[in-house]
Amino acid sequence: MDPEIAEKYASWCRSIVVEASAPSPLLAKACEELVGGIGSMLGRMPLAGGTADHGRCVLLCAGNSSKLHGVVEAAELEALGEEGYVLRTAGEPGRPFVAIAGHTDRGALYGAFHFLRLLQTGQNLNELNIIEKPAAKLRMINHWDNMDGSVERGYAGRSIFYRDGKIVTDRKRIHDYARMMAAVGLNAIAINNVNVHETETNLITSELLPSVAAVADIFRAYGVRLYLSVNFASPIQYGGLTTADPLDPEVRRFWAERAADVYRHIPDFGGFLVKADSEFRPGPFTYGRDHADGANMLAEALRPYGGIVVWRCFVYDCLQDWRDRKTDRARAAFDHFRPLDGKFADNVILQIKNGPMDFQVREPASPLFGGLRHTNQVLELQITQEYTGQQKHLCFLIPQWKEILDFDTYARGEGSTVSKAATGELFGRPLGGIAAVSNIGDDANWTGHLLAQANYYGYGRLVWRPELTAEQIADEWTRITFGHDPAVVSTIRRMLLDSWTIYENYTSPLGVGWMVNPGHHYGPNVDGYEYSKWGTYHYADCHGIGVDRTVKSGTGYTGQYHDKVASRFESIESCPDELLLFFHHVPYTHVLKSGKTVIQHIYDTHFEGAEQVDKLVDVWRGLEGRIDGDRYASVLSRLQEQSKHAKEWRDVINSYFLRKSGIADEQGRTIY
Ligand code: GCU
């Protein structure tokens, strides 16, 4: 830190005064974080303890305290709710102090981290008056970690939770991770893959619960609740029953016993996350029951303890016949869940992927947002970059998530955004929030690609405050991670902000999606899924490309949206260019709003995208010597891989479409 700034801060941070009606572990952590954070930033440890009477201190408060009189009133504190906080400069001239006050100890903890962020980003402390409350109640992370130590769709090493079929015994990394989650405001974690295999099915059994409880203890200390993904067929696999029928009394008894056992070990256990009847996972369909039957049965088991069921809507036919042009995977979630609206118990939340497909670089928002009025819901995002470069490519996803959160469903007229639907505000639902698939692993830098940390960080910040801009988040993360050198900050910020568009440029065009190698999903393969049972996605022939999802002549998917949105997508004229091929099949010569034909757009964006990656490499090289050698080299090598691979994408896509369409590039560039 700049010595002048450090000196200024040091005068505020000589001591930390802690005030609470009852001391709590969370508050102790908040104080510990302040002491450690300030100490490491300023090179001088503040004193913990003491009184506020000498001024120039940080006052950390949970609940009302006489020291807050005239600074934060009781009513204001109460209005902060469970997790909000105030940061305010107060005190008499010559004896000012900064108050970090929460109504609860959890609020105070988040306030403490916010205070540290102010120092890290070089903010002035003289006139602080910050009042914060999270927009989303549930701010969750889903880990797709398996007990053998692998991470499904993980690109940052092995699991931090498991090794060789067991929960790790050295839990230092988990502890650091819990701190990191709290620092960005997250409050819930599911620690095992939604695809619950044999070993993981046993996580809810008496044999494994003690070690799960030890992990829950670590997270609890930072205000994070633990959840487990469960196998719907557990009554058969573990319970020795012959059925998992949700209406069977023995099955219900099985789950009630498991829930009781879980809560004996983990009194504040969050609940179950469930992937059922999806991609070969068992579910209620086997027994002729629906998803409400399945979810409500688990909800009943958890209800006595205040637990919730997070039930995923990622349900579609993955044994489709590619010749069948009526089945449209995009329709599936809505077709399954919309008829059940209102049938789910109050402690069930439906978890809905952001788009109707599967985390593609560009998708419209799922029509279930705004389509479900009487059901709790959470938005599911994917931080791990399964389809967006697998943390070998740079792809800062905050701009994409912002578009999703701001997407207007028109469910209750203008302004009915996905963000409001997910938080529960739109229809006054008691529960709601946002969940995302983690991108971390045991790599030293957590995320493989160092700059992919910005996605995790940004996720936390965005679900706390969806109105933050991508620019603000990129700026914050860059300063916190690399300091304040203006050249470094402006370069990295720009790289982050441009990266999603760049990635889209050289990969799948105009919203059509996929075009990846089947299975691992890395690298170009235009027909990878075209003749596949998992769904078919572009229908390119010698005349044109795209999927007709209109009501008029296609699969009828557009009709799942509210009128205003439906008509925008239904008509080729009003459908936005970037989603054109998701909604319409058009000739290659169709002219876009940009004035270019579809085919020329494909060529141009692919040449441009590959060039843009070369520029990323160049600008990064410009930072040599300005950031430490290790981080410089590690990012450089990822960018070089991206640059090579972007050219592979460019050439595969361009060649495919040149050969299909027979239409030459207007600029006569090399296409193979
Ligand atoms: C994708 C992903 C799978 C994952 C699934 C899910 O299909 O490729 O690995 O299990 O999503 O979200 O359940």
UniProtKB/TrEMBL annotation:
Keyword Hydrolase (UniProt): yes
Root EC class: hydrolase
Gene Ontology terms: biological process: glucuronoxylan catabolic process
Pfam family, one: Glyco_hydro_67N
Enzyme Commission identifier(s): 3.2.1.131
InterPro entries: A-glucoronidase_C_sf, GH, Glyco_hydro_67_aGlcAse, Glyco_hydro_67_aGlcAse_N, Glyco_hydro_67_C, Glyco_hydro_67_cat, Hex-like_dom2
Annotated ranges, domain Alpha glucuronidase N-terminal: 7-115
Catalytic site positions: E279 (proton donor), D358 (proton acceptor), E386 (proton acceptor)
Glycosyl hydrolase family 67 catalytic domain mapped to chain residues: 119-446
A GO molecular-function annotation: alpha-glucuronidase activity
Domain Glycosyl hydrolase family 67 C-terminal: 447-669
Description of how the protein assembles with itself and partners: Homodimer.
Designated name of the protein: Xylan alpha-1,2-glucuronidase
Organism field: Cohnella lubricantis
